[in-house]
Amino acid sequence: MSRVVNWLQHHETRMFHFVNQRIQHFFLDHFFSRITHLGGATATIVISLCCALFGQGALRTAGIQALIALTISHIPVAIIKKKYPRLRPYLVLPQTITYKNPLTDHSFPSGHTTAIFSIVIPFMAAMPVLGLILLPLALIVGLSRIYLGLHYPSDCFVGILIGTAASLTTVALWG
C-alpha cells in the first residue's frame, strides 16, 4: 500500500511542478490570477443569486439549483478540510511559485474548484449549449488553483467530484 501511495504522491508532485513551474508565462500569470476568482465565494454566490432572483424560466431554476448545490457542496469540503488538514503546496514544496496573498487554510479539497463545478452543472443541465463555455471555464478555474501554487491536482480533482455530485443530486431532486 505504501508503494502505491508513494507512487501517487510522486506523480502528483510532478504534475503540480509542471503546471506551477514549467508553463509559467506573463500572460498566464495575469489570466489565472483573475479567472481563479470565478470559483470564489463572492462570484459563485453573486452569479447564482442574481440568476435565481432576476432570471426567468430555466435560468431562474438553474440559479436556485446552483445556490442549493453550492451550499450542499461545501458541507463535505468543510468536514474534509478539518479531518484531513493538508498543507498548501507553497508551504511544503520550496520551489513553488505563488502570488499575492496566498491562502493559509488547508488545501484539500479545493473549495474554489468545488464551488465553480457546483454552480456550472445546473446551468449546463438547463441549457446544454452553455456547456461549451462553462465546462472549459470551470476546468480553467481548477487549473488556475494549481498554477497559482495553492492546490495539488488531487485537491482540484476531489473538488470537481464533490461539486459535480452536489449539483447533479440537486438537479435530480429539485428539477
Describe this structure in words.
The protein is 74% helix and 0% strand. The protein has helices at 2-22, 26-35, 41-54, 58-83, 89-92, 111-126, 131-147, 153-173. Helix 3 runs antiparallel to helix 4, helix 6 (111-126) packs antiparallel against helix 7 (131-147) and helix 7 (131-147) packs antiparallel against helix 8. The radius of gyration is 17 Å and the shape is globular.
Give short descriptive properties of this protein.
mainly alpha; Vanadium-containing Chloroperoxidase, domain 1; 74% helix; PAP2/HPO
Overall pLDDT level: 94
N- and C-termini, Cα separation: 42 Å
- In DSSP terms (H or I, runs of 4 or more residues), the helix count works out at 8
Kindly report the oligomeric state of this protein: single chain
User: What shape does the CA trace take?
Assistant: globular
Rg (CA only): 17 Å
Could you give me the name of the CATH homologous superfamily? Answer: Phosphatidic acid phosphatase type 2/haloperoxidase
By CATH, the topology is Vanadium-containing Chloroperoxidase, domain 1
The main pleated sheet reads as: none
By CATH reckoning, the class would read Mainly Alpha
How many domains, in number, for the residues?
1
Helical percentage = over 70%
**SSE string, helices as H and strands as E:** HHHHHHHH
Relative strand content: under 5%
Name given to the CATH architecture = Up-down Bundle
User: What is the β-strand count?
Assistant: 0
Which secondary-structure class do the elements indicate? mainly alpha
GO cellular component, one term: plasma membrane
Transmembrane segments: 35-55, 62-80, 115-144, 156-174
Membrane topology: Multi-pass membrane protein
Main location: membrane
